[in-house]
Amino acid sequence: MKRIPFLILLCISSIQIAQVTGKITNQKNEPLPFVSVYLDKAAIGTTSNNNGDYILDIKDKGDYTIVYQFLGYKTVKKQIKITNFPYVLNITLEEEKIELDGISISTNDNPANNIIRKTIDNKDKNTDKYANFTAKFYSRGLTKIKNAPKKFLGQSTGDFGGGLDSTRSGIVYLSETFSKIAFQKKPNRFKEKIVASKVSGQDNGVSFNRAEQSNINLYDNSVATFNDLISPISTNAFAYYKYKLEGTFYDTNGKLINKIKLIPKRKNDRVFEGFIYVVEDDWALYGADLTTSGAQVNLPFVNTLVLKQTYIYNTSVDAWILSTQSIDFDINFLGFKPRGRFSYVYSDYDFKPDFTEKTFTNEVLSFEENATKKDSVYWNTLRPVPLTKEEIKDYLFKDSLKVVRKSKKYLDSVDRKGNKFGWSDPLIGYSYNNSYKKKTFSYQGPLLNTSFNTIQGFHTNVGINFFERLNDDGKWWNAGANISYGFSEKRVRPTFYVTKKWNNTNKRRLSVFGGVTTAQFNDRNPITNLDNLIRSLLRRENYLKIYEKEFASIRYAEEIKNGIYFSSSLEYANRKPLFNTSNYSFVSESKSEQPYTSNNPLDPTDFTNPAFTAHKIATLNIGATFTFNQKYLSYPNSKVNLGNDKYPTLNLQYRKRFGATNNELNSDVFIANIRQNISAGNYGDFGYNFRGGIFLKKKNIAFMDNLQANGNQLFFVTSDKSLSRFNLLDYYQYYTNDRYAEGHLEHNFRGALLGKIPLLNKLNFHLIIGGKGLVMADRNPYTEYSVGLGNLGFGKWRFLRIDYISARYSNVNQRGFVLRLNLP
Questions:
Q1: Mean pLDDT to the nearest integer, 631-645
Q2: Helix 389-405 and helix 408-418: axis angle, to 10°?
Q3: Is the per-residue pLDDT at 628 higher than 50?
Q4: For burial by CB atoms within 10 Å, which of 319, 372, 385, 415 has the most?
Q5: Cα separation of 618 and 419, whole Å?
Q6: What's the Cα-to-Cα distance from 427 to each of 435, 451, 458, 484, rounded to whole Å?
């Protein structure tokens, strides 16, 4: 009896009311996946699944010509007369014979180069033919894993949704999306409305297969989805590729197709390998079969990515349009080895859409009502690519399992197993879950929360947290407490917090904090605890300067309108100076070049007098962030902001200090910040960040309330703040209670310049240049200029960057190097 539900679903999935179905194989009777199947001279099409099965949506009886197109095989046209449905048509494809007869190839006259140049010259001409269109878009994502680890860092990895067999192998993700899309070339705009979305084993059914992200346009100079890899027909493609004409063949329309092999000039550069197919005379893409690696996309955990595209000829616009696309991936990440494919089908193109001013808005993705709740009957009439038996089984099994796993009995059984207390939990941490009531109690252990500084010595932190999810729309609340203990100063500092969030749309949030804590004198936190620990213990250098505050605060934030984010906070604090209590280091004081400095940032040699006198003061912060013309995604239960690369982001902040016993400590200051990252395509990325502030009245305020620059005194830093940090500026050298402005400019050329220099181009380094400036009302200007190399490392692991900096201030010239982690 257990087999009956599967057989029923299998039968239901195969019911085709008015469609052409069949199986596509090669001459060895092997199924051919991802074959393009479409009506001749039309934009109605589909593709075959992994088993070679296909469904072509034809509703009316009559005469038709169906085309079967697959790279590497001869295109087949079949004329049929449909008198009854379903109409079954199985097809066998023969391998294409690539001919080189009559083609003369020489070093000075490479025919492949001529073909590529003509294709580049005709890019705009070809894409202008379908500059505006609407279409239907279907995507399917399938991810499998083999021999999945049972544990990771001592914690159980679970069963990945129940799709694993006894060898811990199987499907871990299966999803489908059907959308209506609209595209405009000038100005470049895109819109998607999801009609149906389904994820195996999930209630909400929200797939992340977005049409815009999947729209890989090789006519662009770079492919953003693949971390800006250089297109084989980019305007400067010859700086990255060599080309070889493998041969030619004729398609069923009598068009000569050129098969061209891509040969990267440099290993691990941002390029593809493989083949592109170009239509002679039209100089348009016919197909692409491309491969890239983790080193090339700067993602070391990626083994390979394979992109395949098929273009079909459309008579209405006299153009070759994208019909099908697939992306295969192979990943190896910390013992997990997922592999899979995302398949895409474009159909029902309309090249004369009736666009209005309201067609394209900042909302680039939306869902139809109940799009995630469509049943199997609906999907069987909608799905252009039939499911494989394996996929049908996964849907059936996980949908049945989903009902069981939502029950209190099952959730309690999982919690009983997961809530067991382990021997390492007191040091690492522990969580107690009540999954049915959506509540979690957690404990953070000291092992991963221990550091060192000269004020507290070795210090550690333990904490507890309670979290409750109130609905699926992002409403939750949590509360917790932390206790920090400094072993050298023998001081306990407790803190607490309570936070409530109302939704995932405007992200309204209210928080209350209080207790005793430490804070850096510079509230921009120029040095991390890790960097300070390394320098203190290995070189006896303590750059971290902190003070203590007993405080209570309340914070509120929300997005009040698309692109306008409001935040505010009110705090009352008792602030006290701190002094060194520890002289410990791995390096003895006698062998060190210098002893530890004091905790006074104004005078590191003064171990007696603090940088400020203890006082109580209140602080009001009111801020607003403006992301101009912000694009966003509207999901059923949330809003995801994308920003807009064409416009900067502006932040305005007003900070008022008041209520101090000494009126001189009270102050009012306005701060503005504008920043932007701009893609220059094949020529890299440009970014800028400008920040400025002004006090309403110059007063003798506490040192930590001054506006301060973000400096650096380390050769090696573990955090990358290249667009906000001054590389050779002492941490506390520049501060003001009057007015100031700073600016940071940086351009990463990636491989655009160094890639053209012989021998050096083999290293795949990225040239980075930058400039920085800082002006304050009562200090001399500070400037920096830098030249750096990014993408440093070995093989796929290229997470380092080094810069040579020249700085000038007060008639002093300073030069030095900074090495940093530069994670993608």
A1: 92
A2: 90
A3: yes
A4: 385
A5: 43
A6: 24, 14, 16, 15
